[in-house]
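User: Structure tokens for this complex, please. No commentary.
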Amino acid sequence: NAGVTQTPKFRILKIGQSMTLQCAQDMNHNYMYWYRQDPGMGLKLIYYSVGAGITDKGEVPNGYNVSRSTTEDFPLRLELAAPSQTSVYFCASSYSENEQFFGPGTRLTVL
Amino acid sequence: QKEVEQNSGPLSVPEGAIASLNCTYSDRVSQSFFWYRQYSGKSPELIMSIYSNGDKEDGRFTAQLNKASQYVSLLIRDSQPSDSATYLCAVDSGSARQLTFGSGTQLTVLP
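Assistant:
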């Protein structure tokens, strides 16, 4: 199993541009999550999904959108990128008992 | 707002010593507690989970939970330089197995 995969690993965006961060898992996990981590900080939940077709907002959803058309994939869309969205983005998945497994992350810089 | 507080550190211990990491949480109904290790530039990795009051041991790691005091800790015995990392405390915080993370404690084990 590849676990949780994320692409791209790094990206530089200009202010106002848009992009999609990809996340996929091959563990047949129902639950998937998107977090952002700013330097020296913990993880903040952006969006989560409890299964295909079902998504909900987390603590910091503004400026982001998600979709979940399949169990495996959970892309995160950034519209009109802003410098405040410069961060490291982690995708995670979970099957039971809250134990979440994380992808390698995407480091995004908005200039 | 549900909060998870950790000593920000940094914490330095000599090789072979016991490292003690502490975490308090605000939500009395939380039932699941986790410790993640995060090496610099890497994604969080689950190292311990605990669900019941008391101690749980796994190799050199011991997690301790006291729900009455809303306190969870992680002890690392015989600390090694390879244990140098940031340790994140996470607590379940609602439906869909969401987790709230603390900001992390940076541990350095000195050879």
